[in-house]
Amino acid sequence: MTRSLRSSFRLNQLVLSFALVACATATAQTPPAAAKGPAWFGELDTNHDGKISTQEAAAMPAVAKGFASIDANHDGSITMSEVRVVWRAQLMQAAQAGVQGRMAAFAKADANHDGKLTPEEAKAGGMTVVAKNFKDFDANHDGSVSKDEMQKGAEAMAQQVLAARPQRLQALFTKADTNKDGKLSQAEFTAAFPKFAPSFAFFDENHDGSVEPAEFALPPGI
Questions:
Q1: How far apart are CA 103 and CA 61, in angstroms?
Q2: pLDDT tens, position by position, 57-75
Q3: Where are the alpha helices (DSSP H) in 28-146?
Q4: What is the DSSP letter of 2?
Q5: CATH entry 1.10.238.10 includes domain 92-159
Q6: Could you tell me the residue ranges of all domains in the chain?
Q7: Half-sphere CA count of 185, side-chain side, radius 13 A
Q8: What would the pLDDT profile of 168-198 be if each residue is shown by its tens digit?
Q9: What is the pTM of this model?
Q10: CA separation, residue 221 to residues 46, 85, 183 (Å)
């Protein structure tokens, strides 16, 4: 694992817990009519000034609890730029969890406990991806996958997942930009992302009436 990736996984757990709440509320179904409070943390920006104050954050305990950690520049407000950092951290945490999961699966599938996996062990152990791509994991081509090869292979897969995220966001942005002018008007943004429509001002950081590629981001999982 690279040093930068490893250090990122050590980010404050309070920030990461906020990210999980933010993602969950963003992707959940619309709450019942009787439910009160914002459906997504972006809706905390009730005065539509593009940032969330401590007073506004009080409406969502998870955000209020992690406010100081999310507010990276300590100016007393949370902006979309700061939220994007949290989302990236969550993606990296998920990638690391994937690596750990594959290593745990490796240990379980290693039936004879020799520290290596044969194609048969990988298949029998439910490691379908490894079994199907065995030659890619078997870097030294000795017919087995060592623990070190498994670690490097799992980390490479995690990196691929992280690298694919910007492409995913770009594809969503391009699809939403129906007039192809390189930015999303409020109408385009609302049509493409109705759940986030009440938070348009929060996304539009420079307050020019549109969301540009540099301002655009969505919670992990979308």
A1: 35
A2: 999 998 999 999 999 999 9
A3: 54-57, 61-65, 67-70, 80-109, 119-124, 128-132, 134-137
A4: -
A5: yes
A6: 3-91+186-211, 92-159
A7: 6
A8: 999 999 999 999 999 999 999 999 999 999 9
A9: 0.73
A10: 25, 15, 23
